[in-house]
Amino acid sequence: MGVPELLKAASHPPRRRARRGTRAKRRPPLPLRPIHKMWRRTIDAIDVERITLPVRGLPEALKGMVACQISDLHVDRDEDLERLEAAVKTINRLHPDLVFLTGDYFSTPETRQHYLVPFRRALSELNPRVQTFAIAGNHDHWASFDHIDEALRAAGVQTLSNESRALELRGARLTVVGIDDLWARQADPQRSFSRVKPDDCTLVLAHNPDTALYARHLRPGVMLSGHTHGGVVRIPLYGSPIKSILRIGRKFYAGLNRYGDFHIYTNRGLGTYWLRVRINCHPEVSRFQLTPMAEGAEHATHLHQVRGGRS
Predict the structure, then answer these.
(1) Average per-residue pLDDT in the chain?
(2) Cα–Cα distance for residue pair 122/99, rounded to 1 Å
(3) Which residues contact 196 (CB under 8 A, 6 or more apart)?
(4) Does 23 reside within a domain?
(5) Which residue would you say has higher pLDDT here, 140 or 25?
(6) What average pLDDT does range 118-132 have in this prediction?
(7) Do the domain assignments include residue 9?
(8) Residue 51 DSSP symbol
């Protein structure tokens, strides 16, 4: 049995959520407590990542708008719910205009059934100036997204399933596009963009970064994703050593990366799945400040692609 398994066996978090303030949690054996404390910090200490987000075609009037993103909540235990509650408080302190939830809210139908009500209650506390938008992840379809969708809508969250919503903000237009999950075989980028006008600036939500492979011809303004949990293990100046689960490559496991003529931001997620381990890869709240993509950057990338194709 490895260290993660020892820690899991030692902590034994309760499966059922007790009344607030009356939870009785078993403490690990004394020799394991320093390791247990360090382990809990790696999966509970939420980083706020502040990113200047380049958006292709962003109207000048929308420059400086603030948006927040959380992803991959995996609310399967009491501590996962507590982490979500902490993230919601953090987001509200950042006073965003928009909030984006990019999927995988629960891991299984059983945990969805058990934590759905407190999950809804936690998300109902979000207080953006404009709106909160959400999409589904692969686990949500496996856990029955219909129930999750109802809870999200009851919390005041607008869900997008291969559809878009146009917003009039500061006298300009911004369209939020939500593409359904790729691994669950629900993604339909063409349908998602069916009501998008040619000159619309789009902010695309897609749980899996690989969705970019099938949406790039639709000219996203920017894409926000999750799914990867940041690669779980992060080595400075290298990234994750874990073999890529993404066709577009492991560099898209986390952070802001250029893909063709637009950017993808991959959130490291709040929760864990399978192994409850993170190494140098803390849970994340993303705080974006929108900015227009630099003039000429799109044209330069296109030239590079053409020249690369000819060589």
Answers:
(1) 85
(2) 14
(3) 164, 175, 177, 202, 218
(4) no
(5) 140
(6) 98
(7) no
(8) E
Q: What is the pLDDT of residue 41?
A: 67
The confidence band for 231, taking pLDDT boundaries of 50, 70 and 90, is confident
Look up residue 262 and give its two tokens: 């637009």
CB 229 within 8 A of CB 269: yes
Evaluate whether residue 16 is within a structural domain.
no
Q: What average pLDDT does range 43-66 have in this prediction? A: 95
Domain presence at residue 190: yes
Q: What mean pLDDT comes out for the span 103-120?
A: 96
Domain that holds residue 123: 42-302
Question: CATH no. for residue 107?
Answer: 3.60.21.10
Name beta bridge partners: 287. 50, 68
Q: Is the pLDDT of residue 224 over 60?
A: yes
Output the six-digit token pair for 88. 């919601």
- Number of Cβ within a 10 Å radius of residue 161: 17
Single pTM value for the model:
0.84
Total domain count, the chain: 1
Measured CA to CA, the distance from residue 242 to residue 252 in angstroms comes to 12
Q: Quote the pLDDT of residue 197.
A: 93
Is residue 271 within a helix (H) or strand (E), and if so which, with residue range? none
DSSP string across 123-173: HTT---SSEEEE---HHHHHT-HHHHHHHHHHTTPEE-SSEEEEEEETTEE
Strand 172-179 relative to strand 98-101: parallel, antiparallel, unpaired? unpaired
At residue 180's C-alpha, the angle toward residues 126 and 105, to 5°, is 45
Q: How far apart are CA 99 and CA 133, in angstroms?
A: 6
Buried-exposed string 218-229: b where 16+ CB fall within 10 A, e elsewhere: ebbbbbbbbbbb
SS3 at position 190: helix
